[in-house]
Amino acid sequence: MGALTQARFSGAEETMTECDYEELSHTAEVGLRVRGAAPAALFACAAIGMFGLIGGRPGNRDRRRLVTVESLDAESLLVDWLSELLYLHETTGEVYDHCEVTTWLPTRLEAVIEGGRLAGQPLRAIKAVTYHGLRLYEAGGAWVAEVYFDI
């Protein structure tokens, strides 16, 4: 289980949330089950969780990026959001330990992420975000997502 207080979302309900995520294992994949009080919190925590799977911390938190993603539906938006963050990690060597979702719609997300270049080596390399086993649903007043990554 992860519990980091570095995920935020802009909304009337709350501005800071603890990330509730757990690692799921599958052959040649690793996954996350993420919970959030609202979809924006869930997406912020999914980002924190993915970087938790990659492992490592930024040497300095000296990078701040605005990320905008649009997609066909909420499930595709989750995959595209995490894929965009993975692309940034792969091309810059950066990891992000702070995420603030400023806009969340089922087909559009805007967020500010903060982090920096990875200090040391990652625990694992994630190759891609997959649609295999993808789930996004509301249960018991919370939002839950399950997403898997090729490793």
Could you walk me through the main structural features you see in this protein, from its secondary elements to its overall organization?
The chain is α+β, with helices and mostly antiparallel strands. Helices cover 23% and strands 44% of the residues. It has one domain (7-150): Archease domain (Archease, Possible Chaperone, Chain: A, domain 1, 3-Layer(bab) Sandwich). The chain contains two helices and ten strands. A five-stranded mixed β-sheet has the order 2-1-6-7-5, covered by helices on one side. Strands 3, 4, 8, 9 and 10 form a five-stranded antiparallel β-sheet that branches.
Q: State the secondary-structure class.
A: alpha+beta
Distance between the termini: 20 Å
Radius of gyration: 14 Å
State the helix count.
2
CATH architecture: 3-Layer(bab) Sandwich
Residue stretches low in confidence (pLDDT < 50, at least 5 long) are 1-6, 8-16
Q: CATH-wise, what's the superfamily?
A: Archease domain
H/E element string? EEEEHEHEEEEE
* Main beta-sheet annotation: 5 strands, mixed
Strand content: 35-45%
Counting structural domains, the number is 1
Q: What's the overall geometry?
A: globular
SS elements, strand count: 10
